[in-house]
Amino acid sequence: MLLSVEAATEADPTGLAEVLLGALAVLSPGGTSRRLLHEVTRNLTRFRDEAEAAADAVLGRLAEESIVTFDVSGGLAAVHRVTGRVLRDRLAGAEIRQVVIEVVVRALERFTAHDLERHLPERAWVEHLAEQVDAVRSHDLDDDHARRVLRLRRSIGGYHLQVGDDDRAITVLTEVVDEYRARSEDAGDDLRLSMTSLAQALGRVGRHGEAIAVQEEVLAAACARHGHVDPVHVALTRSNLAHFHRRAGNVDEALWLERRSWQHRRAFLGVEHPSTLMAQLRVGVAHLAAGDVESAIRLLDSAESTCARVDPGSLLLLDLKVTLASAQLEAGRQEDGITRYEAVLADWSPSWGAVGDQSHVLVVAELVALLRATGRHGEALTHCEAALHRIDEQVRVRAAGLRLRGELAELHHGAGRTGEAARIYEAMARDAERVYGRDHPITRDCRERWAWFSGRQRAGVPATAT
User: Fold this and answer.
1) Does 371 lie in the same domain as 329?
2) Which run of H or E residues covers position 224?
3) Are residues 336 and 388 in the same domain?
């Protein structure tokens, strides 16, 4: 086998066979996607403009020589475990090893930044990337590559947090935090961001004491670095701690922490600074959690007026408008809340995102749920169908998009079209399984609703409120 590998690399004057075999040695023994190997090739300057064709030609020759095999689809390249051992041993002492590690890490960074941090890819692709990152991590890496691979793992943990896979997020982020702590140098913001994400995941599964303890450690480090009255880093970290106290039911502690952050920002940044207005929003939310709705409305109304004057195109203004609408509902003023949601959509600013983007769909979903709850089904259906007609494809499979599609299904059921409701939930279940995985709570919920509506359709049960 070693002779076959040597012959194959010597017969390739471009040197690409050497690099791709090295990449297969570094990456997962379970196989590497052709897409990832294309990106590895693209990271070699001389192949940048013809990466796919060059990689496919070399991989084809290696397959003919039985060094590389492909799955049935042709999209996954792998080597026999004996061949893999030969390749790893051969790469260990080769001068090209650092080049191979570099182009592999850069390829993983590119896909992680593009697919995990900006988009919502199919679950199978995420699992493939995670498998490759773990494979690279198992090798003896220099400090630079070790740090970069650790950031990749942090991004994977962040992805699990984003899609609500909290148990997996906790597992990955705990390992990441431990590894950052074990490093001799100060990990700085990388460690603090990882710990805050870990605290968020812990809080979401009800482990509030652990979440608070982790975030208190983050706050102590921020205070040591920036000072207790720092209006940026410390104020934000303190506000995050308040969020975890609020989730734990410690509303008085949460309100005290939010007020302290607001006071520091007013003193150092001024009352009209966007960060100060954000802090005022958070104080309003804390008042809502404490049951002091009227105080919350006064704070939110004041912040909205100021923000509309000093920063009218900001997402902060959208947050203030939506939170104020929610506060009106908490106060029992349902029609006022509906009117405010409708005004947000009527005056939608392009700076908040395109119509059909995540932020827009979230507002539509809130309004549709309210209209349906108050019996205004015709208006709810109009808003729902208009938004879904223009919805971004990425948003369609996110939580907000699935929620709006679910609202449409409920409206159809309420109008006696139970079969249409079942078809909508069937499509949602298939999308959710493809993106989130078969056992994710979102997928299970869609499957259960599909089964429920299908059963009622078959039984001929009349529509009722659901």
Assistant:
1) no
2) helix 208-226
3) no
- Strand order from edge to edge, sheet including 32-33: 32-33, 76-78, 69-70
- pTM for the full predicted model: 0.87
Rounded Cα distance, 78 and 32, in Å: 6
Residues 21 and 10: beta-carbon distance below 8 Å? no
Measured from the Cβ of residue 220, the count of other Cβ atoms closer than 10 Å reads 11
pLDDT for 465? 47
Could you report the per-residue pLDDT of 99-140, keeping only the tens digit for each? 999 999 999 999 998 887 777 889 999 999 999 999 999 999
Is residue 153 situated within a structural domain?
no
What is the secondary structure of 151-211 as a DSSP string?
Answer: HHHHHHHHHHHHTT-HHHHHHHHHHHHHHHHHSSS--THHHHHHHHHHHHHHHHTT-HHHH
Q: Could you tell me if residue 221 is inside a domain?
A: yes
Q: Please, what are the averages of pLDDT over each run of 10 residues along the chain (466 residues)?
A: 74 90 93 96 91 94 91 91 85 88 96 82 93 95 94 95 94 96 77 95 96 96 87 90 95 96 93 96 96 96 97 94 96 95 94 89 95 94 94 90 96 94 96 94 95 86 57
- Are both 360 and 277 inside the same structural domain? no
Q: Which of residues 79, 108, 137 is at a domain's end?
A: 108
Residue 422: in which H helix or E strand, if any?
helix 418-436
Contact 338, 318 (CB under 8 A): no
Q: Is residue 133 part of a domain?
A: no
Reduced to 3 states (helix: H, G, I; strand: E, B; else coil), residue 77 is strand
Domain of residue 313, CATH code: 1.25.40.10
Q: Are 233 and 337 within one domain? A: yes
286 and 227 assigned to the same domain: yes
Co-location of 296 and 279 in the same domain? yes
- For residues 20 and 23, give the distance between their C-alpha atoms in angstroms, rounded to a whole number: 5
Q: List the Cα angle 163/179/217 in 5-degree steps.
A: 75
Question: Which residue range forms the structural domain that includes residue 434?
Answer: 353-466
Supply the CATH number for residue 11's domain. Answer: 1.10.10
Q: For residue 138, what pLDDT is reported?
A: 93
Are 362 and 455 within one domain? yes
The pLDDT score that the predictor gives to residue 213 is 97
Which of these, 35, 55, 30, lies nearest to 131 by C-alpha position? 30
74: left (phi over 0), alpha (psi -120 to 50) or beta: left
Give the residue among 442, 425, 432 at the shortest CA–CA distance from 165: 442
| Structural domain contains residue 397 | yes
For 28, 67, 82, 84, the CA distances from 79, given in Å and listed in that order, are 10, 6, 8, 6
